[in-house]
Hints:
homodecamer; 4-stranded antiparallel sheet; 2 helices
Amino acid sequence: MHKDKIKLLEIFDNPYPGRDYSIVHTAEEFTSLCPVTGHPDFGKIIISYIPDKKCVELKSMKYYLQSYRNEGIFFEALTNKILDDLVKILKPRNMIVTGEFKNRGGIRSTIKAEYLKK
Amino acid sequence: MHKDKIKLLEIFDNPYPGRDYSIVHTAEEFTSLCPVTGHPDFGKIIISYIPDKKCVELKSMKYYLQSYRNEGIFFEALTNKILDDLVKILKPRNMIVTGEFKNRGGIRSTIKAEYLKK
Amino acid sequence: MHKDKIKLLEIFDNPYPGRDYSIVHTAEEFTSLCPVTGHPDFGKIIISYIPDKKCVELKSMKYYLQSYRNEGIFFEALTNKILDDLVKILKPRNMIVTGEFKNRGGIRSTIKAEYLKK
Amino acid sequence: MHKDKIKLLEIFDNPYPGRDYSIVHTAEEFTSLCPVTGHPDFGKIIISYIPDKKCVELKSMKYYLQSYRNEGIFFEALTNKILDDLVKILKPRNMIVTGEFKNRGGIRSTIKAEYLKK
Amino acid sequence: MHKDKIKLLEIFDNPYPGRDYSIVHTAEEFTSLCPVTGHPDFGKIIISYIPDKKCVELKSMKYYLQSYRNEGIFFEALTNKILDDLVKILKPRNMIVTGEFKNRGGIRSTIKAEYLKK
Amino acid sequence: MHKDKIKLLEIFDNPYPGRDYSIVHTAEEFTSLCPVTGHPDFGKIIISYIPDKKCVELKSMKYYLQSYRNEGIFFEALTNKILDDLVKILKPRNMIVTGEFKNRGGIRSTIKAEYLKK
Amino acid sequence: MHKDKIKLLEIFDNPYPGRDYSIVHTAEEFTSLCPVTGHPDFGKIIISYIPDKKCVELKSMKYYLQSYRNEGIFFEALTNKILDDLVKILKPRNMIVTGEFKNRGGIRSTIKAEYLKK
Amino acid sequence: MHKDKIKLLEIFDNPYPGRDYSIVHTAEEFTSLCPVTGHPDFGKIIISYIPDKKCVELKSMKYYLQSYRNEGIFFEALTNKILDDLVKILKPRNMIVTGEFKNRGGIRSTIKAEYLKK
Amino acid sequence: MHKDKIKLLEIFDNPYPGRDYSIVHTAEEFTSLCPVTGHPDFGKIIISYIPDKKCVELKSMKYYLQSYRNEGIFFEALTNKILDDLVKILKPRNMIVTGEFKNRGGIRSTIKAEYLKK
Amino acid sequence: MHKDKIKLLEIFDNPYPGRDYSIVHTAEEFTSLCPVTGHPDFGKIIISYIPDKKCVELKSMKYYLQSYRNEGIFFEALTNKILDDLVKILKPRNMIVTGEFKNRGGIRSTIKAEYLKK
């Protein structure tokens, strides 16, 4: 089921491929489920990258993030999977995905994963 | 139509060309249109540079930024175009243009492009 | 389907029925769906009341609020329905339910409904 | 020209007409033009009301507010006109319209007008 | 066991009994246990009163509040019991005790109880 | 000298004289001189009123407030004089002038004066 | 020793005795000693009044407040004494003195005393 | 007694061992006792690490931190011991433990200890 | 006229010349005039330096900054001139002067100039 | 007189001498006197260090800082002296003392001095 999410993402041509510049998208209203208890988790997903030939289309990324709404997934796996999916379709020069998750049992967690083109 | 905007910008002589120093202008009230839906976008434009021989005149820069009010333009293109226009007329030692755009469909975006004189 | 939600709520005896005192519960992480577009809505639900013979049990109220996660409902209907359900099982001396909903299309909305025992 | 704006507003039946409850819509991103200088004004419009038989539909209200984007209008006239238009189509039990306008020449202004059904 | 706590409280003579004036003590670092799960609860206790003949001594009140550290007690019972204990020893002209408890399962609660001398 | 300041103020016809509504102008950048030491004072002036037949024109009010820049005047006298001048030319239904003055010798002061039409 | 403090206060004629208006002085940097332990206490003193014939001179009030620096005095006594002293020399139409004292042993305290001319 | 705490911690396999990524857990509600006076200390514990083969399970870490509730321990020893315990069971690539402790006698303290795999 | 300002600055011997340490003075209440329109500009001046043999005396620096009150000067020239004047009399090991100027026509500006002893 | 202050400081053995870790103590409520005018100065003292064999005992440091209450001392001398005294008794691997002093005549000052073991 997880594999199909990536098909929701759409891309467009980077309008300024000759210059390194950064794009940061912050989705404040992210929710998924805890894979153990089934209870909802809430958080913020921050996607920061230097595009190469392609940029991610904003509306499609919104649908992609919404597709986690009713799935159980650990924070660590979620953050790394979003990075993998976006790297696969964008092949960016650099990308960092950060998941800031709200309080669960008195502890809040932030996961941050980076990709750097070799 | 985009080409004519640059004519709105006026410059004056850098009063301290012998020293590297930085100038940051922050325009909190920027608005343009989404090129797809035609709906208004709102944001903040931050122009940061080390002047060489010329500085940009503040009032003319205000008119330049206002000229985007009724034009449809993507965030990525907008930020890079403002950088291109200002670099063209100022030939600064360094310049960074940042566009911080407000929430659209639950996601807010920041684009940051840099120019460095070789 | 809406009718069954009320069964999720559990109550316990007010430990100090001889005194008027107020209880406010604030659930920061509420989400439901827009009945028109199917897109997720996010908000905060504030339940404030003066108990009479019964108080609402916290964990059951959490499950009750989570039961709206995948249902399409207008803000106005949602806020009033929560008030109706809680009044029905608690018969409080007074109750105010406030729904503070996040930005949708650039506009955020707050709905506030009050019940007063006659 | 001003007269046609009201046609943009759509209404729907109040789902809980038997109870007095309040609805507040806050549009953070409002812009119009100064009727004297033609320069853009920016502000926030807050519409607060107790519905009677009708509620205003959110998307139509967004289009209504956007219709001021390129019109010159004084803050005092604008705030009162929004109140008049909404009262005309909603006939609410009570309504307050507040316009909070950003800094112009070092002074920021707030206009607040109220309607109470007799 | 609860009954003995009140013995920890010490009082002193109100230095200005001829005038109605208010005293507010805010203890930011309160902790007790959930009577159901045994897990720690954290919160803030605000004691506000108009003294009559007696004031509560600050250090003794600190020890009184610390005495709840390892006891299981519901928020509603706790707030009302603190009010009862303080009213009993101070016989104030008026007293309000507010307990603001931190997030438990995504919901935070505030309990507020008042005593008014007849 | 003080008497001539009032001539700087310009007025225009209230566009909605049939309705009581409030106008608040906040000038964040006010400066005058201490009449004793000659040192600069800084503060914020807030003018809030219900107009009757006339409103004050914004630009002229800016010039009026700037005219205090190099005059020595006590906070108490200043706030009351602004109220007197504006009441004289506007004859409003109600007006409150508030002066919030910054720290001078470790103490900051706020003066608030009100006029109510009889 | 306490009795002599009042001699530090100086007054001047109210420039607008014909109108009720309010004056608030906030001294952020107040310090005295705990009469029991001798340790320093820190706080903020807020003096709010409606003057009758006299106003308090700002610099003299600063010296008056500084005179508590090395004296041991309880918060309740301190706040009431400042009110007594100022009422004695100003005979205001109304006065409220508020002392907001910083954290001592995890508890912060606010004392508020009011005088109303009969 | 301290030695047994480590047994409370549970681990799970790092789902993305092939990539360096960071995990930060912030526990806002930590409390222990002062080993000298026996009075409660309150603080925030921040655990930041780059996992190697194992991650710490969130609920077990909550129980581990709660186990300090009634133990007397100095801030310096506490922060270093948490680091030692977590390094022992996780063998992370890097770990930083920060303890931010609230005001005690007017002074608040932060202790920060780091481990780097050789 | 500008040349005479430097005479207002007084200096004293650095009490710890054997150690590199930094001094930052922040003047929140700076005002000068726009050289084009004559309108007042407001801002904050931050002076940060590592002293060598001399330090600047605080009161004299306050008078120096106040001397710009009624002079027309561009932000870029002002910031660089303050740096030049202070470097001339202090001969510091390093100095940075930052001018943060408030909103003018919707744009706020920050100028930052640095001096480093060779 | 200054020389005796250091005797107030007490030390204890670093419990983890084998690891470089940092300790930061922040005293929010510091007060001394201006050596010129005798008026009170207020500020915050931040002591940050990497301990070697010894740590400073918290309560003794509080008494040490309180000993400046009635002494006239310049900010620059004060910050450097605290650093000297603490370095002398602790011989830390590294230490930074920062003094953030409140507004005096409209200017606030921060002094920061560092010691690094050679």
